[in-house]
Design brief:
Blueprint (H helix, E strand, L loop, with lengths): L1 E4 L4 H11 L6 E4 L15 H15 L15 H14 L5 E6 L2 H11 L9 E6 L4 E2 L5 E2 L9 H7 L4 E2 L2 H17 L3 E6 L2 E5 L5 H5 L7 E2 H11 L6 H13 L3 E5 L7 E5 L9
Parallel strand pairs: 1-2, 1-3, 3-4
Antiparallel strand pairs: 4-7, 5-6, 8-9, 10-12, 11-12
Helix pairs in contact: 1-5, 4-6, 8-9
C-alpha cells in the first residue's frame, strides 16, 4: 500500500496512525507542489511545465524561499514517475490518496489523476469532505487539513476508503483541463471538489487589512493573515504579494525587501480604502 498526501505536516500524523494499525502499513509519499496557485495551462507538456517553473522562480526570488525551484526538493514529476513504475511492476500494489476539504489537496488531486487512470480499481480516495472528527479534547470538529486530525482518529477515517470510479477518472481530469484553459493563477475551493479561479491579486485586499499605520515586520503581517483570514495560502506566495503591494507606492518600507524578517511595512499617510 502506498499513501499519497499533499502536505508535509500530514506525514508524521499519518505515520503515527499506521503504527496503530498494521493493515495500513505502507510508504507515505508527498506531492509537494502547491497546485492551488500558479499557471496550470498545458501543465503536462514541456512548455507548460517550464512556464510554471519560471513563474515559481519569479515568486520565490529575493526572499526566504529563493532557489527552491532549482534545488530538486520539489519534483512531483519524478515522484509520479517512480509511483507509476512501482504500480506497473507490482500488480497487487494499491494507492490510497488522502485529501481534506481544502483547495491545496483538491488541486493536487486533480493534477494527480492524469497519471493514474490505467490503474483504475487500484487507486482509492479518502476525501474528508464535511465529515466530523474528535480533536484531542474529545470535541467534535470538521477538519480542513489532515494534520489537524489526531492519529487515532485516522483509524476511523480509513473506513472512508473507496476506489476512484471510472466515471471520476473521465470527468475530473476534464474539470482540471477546463480550469487550465481559464489561465488564471489562484484557485479557491467552493465546496465538494468545485474549484473557482481568480487573478494573482486575489489575496491582496485581505492582506492589506493586516497592514497598519505602525511599522510591522512582513513576517508578522503574513502570520496574522494566516491565523485570521478566511482564505489563506502559502507564506511564499503572500511574501511575493506583499512585495508587489510595496512596489505599488502606497506603503512605506524600511529594511531590505528580501526575507520576511528583513523589512517592515506601514501605510503611507494612512490606510487605503476601496473608495480611494
Amino acid at each position: 500500500m502506498i499513501h499519497l498526501v499533499f502536505n508535509e505536516a500530514d506525514i508524521p500524523v499519518l505515520k503515527q496512525a499506521i503504527e496503530m494499525d498494521e493493515s495500513m502499513a505502507g510508504e507515505v509519499v508527498q506531492i509537494k507542489d502547491d497546485y492551488s496557485v500558479g499557471p496550470i495551462e498545458n501543465i503536462y507538456a514541456g512548455e507548460g511545465k517550464e512556464l510554471r517553473k519560471a513563474w515559481w522562480r519569479n515568486v520565490l526570488s529575493g526572499g526566504d524561499f529563493e532557489g527552491k525551484t532549482e534545488d530538486g526538493e520539489v519534483d512531483d514529476y519524478a515522484t509520479i514517475a517512480h509511483l507509476v513504475g512501482t504500480l506497473r511492476r507490482n500488480p497487487d500494489e494499491i494507492v490510497w490518496i488522502w485529501a481534506a476539504q481544502n483547495k491545496h489537496d483538491v488541486s493536487g488531486y486533480y493534477w494527480l489523476l492524469h497519471f493514474l487512470k490505467e490503474f483504475q480499481g487500484r487507486i482509492f480516495i479518502l476525501y474528508l469532505n464535511n465529515l466530523p472528527f474528535l480533536n484531542e479534547k474529545r470535541q467534535l470538529f470538521y477538519p480542513s487539513w489532515l494534520h489537524t486530525i489526531p492519529p487515532k482518529e485516522f483509524l476511523k477515517a480509513k473506513k472512508l476508503s473507496r476506489p476512484i470510479t471510472l466515471s471520476e477518472f473521465e470527468i475530473d481530469p476534464d474539470e482540471w483541463t477546463r480550469l487550465s484553459q481559464e489561465n488564471k493563477i489562484v484557485r479557491i475551493l467552493e465546496g465538494g471538489k468545485k474549484l473557482v479561479q481568480y487573478n494573482e491579486d486575489f489575496y491582496d485586499a485581505d492582506l492589506s487589512k493586516f497592514i497598519t499605520n505602525d511599522w510591522q515586520k512582513a513576517g508578522r503581517i503574513i502570520s496574522q493573515f494566516q491565523n485570521k483570514n478566511k482564505h489563506s495560502t502559502g507564506d511564499a506566495y503572500l511574501l511575493w504579494r506583499l512585495k508587489q503591494l510595496a512596489a505599488g507606492g502606497a506603503l512605506d518600507v524600511q529594511g531590505e525587501i528580501r526575507n520576511m524578517k528583513d523589512f517592515e511595512l506601514k501605510w503611507k499617510g494612512g490606510p487605503v480604502t476601496d473608495s480611494e
